[in-house]
Amino acid sequence: MRDSEFFGYVTAVAPGKVNMGLRVGPPREDGYHSVATLYLAVSLHEEVTASPRDDGAVTVTLSERSAFRETEFRDRDSGEVVAVPVPVDEQNLAHRAATLLRSRLGHTRGVDLTITKNVPIAGGMGGGSADAAATLVACSALWDAGLSKEQLAELGAELGADVPFAILGGAAVGQGVGDDLSPLLARGELHLVIVPATTGLSTPEVYGLLDSMREEAGVEAEPPELDQDLIRAVCTGDVETAAMLMANDMQAPAVSMLPVLDDMMDVGMVEGAMQGMVSGSGPTVMFLARDAEAAAALAARLEERTSAWAIPVSGPAQGARLLTHRPGETPLRG
Length: 334
Prior knowledge:
The protein is of the alpha+beta class and 334 residues long. It is built from eleven helices and 15 strands. It folds into two domains: 3-185 and 316-323, 2-Layer Sandwich (Ribosomal Protein S5, domain 2); 190-314, Alpha-Beta Plaits (2-Layer Sandwich). It has helices spanning 3-7, 93-105, 127-142, 149-156, 163-168, 203-217, 228-236, 239-245, 251-257, 260-270, 292-306; strands spanning 10-27, 33-53, 58-62, 70-74, 81-85, 110-116, 171-175, 180-184, 190-195, 199-200, 247-248, 275-278, 285-289, 311-315, 321-323.
């Protein structure tokens, strides 16, 4: 008997990610940029519960347990700050994932999707992609699709470059637009502290500013390449080497758009972080710590100094997976 038949619903989780290295090449003809990035899935998960519907509709609801429900964006022209809630319609990536999967399966069954958001919104950690990944895994089980993770990852690539990695998890090198994945055998563990920003950044705007900054500086973007020593350091858990070689081409434009990120990184380094860096296109800031104990202590000091929310995490974390729990129970966190 399937879990959905016994429990009446299926729950899946998928991890957020950080980019331990992110190199960005010149703009491509399709408007995207070629990248070389080192993904690390971390122990901060999005959770999606899929329940069947009889009317063929796809609905999205945010759970009351969500740590994040909206974010703020500052208009670059007017300077006005606007609160933007997580969409719960066809714009939501989880909605699109369920619709895409059932279209490929050739049926019109409906589903209620309840999302518990624990990954910062518009924070460069792939929270929306994790929602899509968890939805694909949950709906695949709910509808008895019999698809492998690799098949779901291939389907997820149609939704966004970060979705396949959220399905597979672990550590991987991403090339192309980030969706050409080469999984890595990571034998070590890294501990970080994540500090979400209250104001979000638009990824396309950060890329656009990077292009402008390079043009103004007379810098010609080269084909992106990752430092092989950084890859080895992440795979083996070599904290000292990873701290020296972490790099993000998106950090300068992100800091230019949101200078408070630079202040946060300075505080983290003063409080004992081995390295601080903007995660992906920002504005989440991440700090590398020596071990789990140091990460917990750093998070406490950052919260005391800045009143920001600081979250200790570790990686590599497992990719999207099903959770089994009885009705009324709180699902276990991965």
